[in-house]
Specification:
Tachylectin-2, Chain A, 1% helix, ConA-like_dom_sf, GH43_C2, Glycosyl_Hydrlase_43, glycosidase, hydrolase activity
Amino acid sequence: MRFENPILPGFYPDPSVCRVEDDYYLVTSTFEWYPGVPIFHSRDLVHWRQLGHVLDRPSQLNLDGIRPSGGIYAPTLRHHDGVFYMITTLVDGKANEGDFLVTATNPAGPWSDPYWFPETEGFDPSLFFDDDGRAWMHGARPARPQKYEGHMDVWLRELDLNTMKLVGEEHTLWDGAVKGATWAEGPHLYKIDGTYHLLASEGGTAQDHALSAARSDTVTGPYTGSTRNPILTHRNLGRSHPIVGTGHADLVQTRQGDWWALLLAMRPYGGYHYNLGRETFLTPVHWEDGWPVIPHIQPSAEAPSLPPRLWPAPPACDNFEAPHLAPHWNHLRTPRDQYWSLTDRPGHLRLRTRPESVTRHSDPSLIARRQQHIDFTARTAMDFTPEGPDDRAGLVLIQNDAFHILLVRTADGLEVLRREAGVTRLLTRTPVPPGRLWLGVEAHGQDYQMSYATGPGHWHPLGDPVDGRVLSPTVAGGFTGAYIGMYTSSEGHPSRNSADFDWFEYAPLPAT
């Protein structure tokens, strides 16, 4: 059996994986999106179902005012003595920030409130449980001394699991394999046949991303790098290659003894643009002379020698009839106000129109999901009547507050707006009658065609296709991928209005 990469399409970067008996669990970064750290379950490493989120309570995750691509960086997931551990970094937090750890006995939750490590610096913490019962925390930080910008160290220190405190001496393990290499990060330790192996990425998370390996006879080092470093990179394949930016890998061994790597990479299209962000890929790992060998990542490959386990496919259309939002829906930053309801009007998602806007570092009335396909369609049916001159509601395709596309009903009609570098431009406007509106977008590569209907099935294109490159990190900057969702705002002014969405449908389209 073969499988298709990526195994988690869309914005699922920095994967970390662990195995418990025959079950595999995986987490990824979420940055400014809430809930934080989705957790997935698989039996065959190819098919994954989302169990929920690790950080699903405001007491666990304060994202107030977080800048785009701040927030939750590079979680690591491990299991030890019946307990799951997830460790990560909150970057640029307004209250707490830095490294923290949460635990659970069930990966679906509930997870504990955070244990913070105020003495650490840097990001991308990881955990290693040795076979002598000792636990070790390690991560990436600015090198001491720092010889050039982006010069990083990988550090190690023992973790007391009873007190959740770091104890003992700190050890410096690694500062990258390549001379002058920047951003040695995403470290993970493994003990294999009595030898300690360290994997770390370097070169940044774009085209120059790479994965390097080192090993030692003792956990505290010294570590010797592989003469074959970097053991994985696609930077030598050029920007025209269909998969770029490979790195930030985590290893897992099956019961059968086979090794696999879960890693991030991007799929550029429409030029060197990757609106879907950094995605999760799967590849086999072999061992030669005691070193891991990882082949170039392929769009399709032979699947692991595990019994296939498919999960029921989630429905393409959400009718909002469940008591809670489905796990693929996200908020932008921690919602401090219950601005959504599934019960005020049964069978509908109601969003309260509030002053918060997607043009600011706020928590707007936005329920969104990842764009997961290069070619896709998304549609919804909305009931909304503007009550003030700045009231608006509809669909948004968003990379961040400075780069997004809006299809919204306003007091002036139905409008398409494109925001780039913080400047919003009206692309087209059309009058629409009162009552229900059907809104849609159909994407073919970087062409995003907006459409609408004033009656069921009577769809009309609205303006020309919108250039979607504002949704790519190569234009907008940052580490996230594009989202699409339902949105309403009064743009800084008080409002008692609301928007009702009857359903939301998202589906891939055949490649053009």
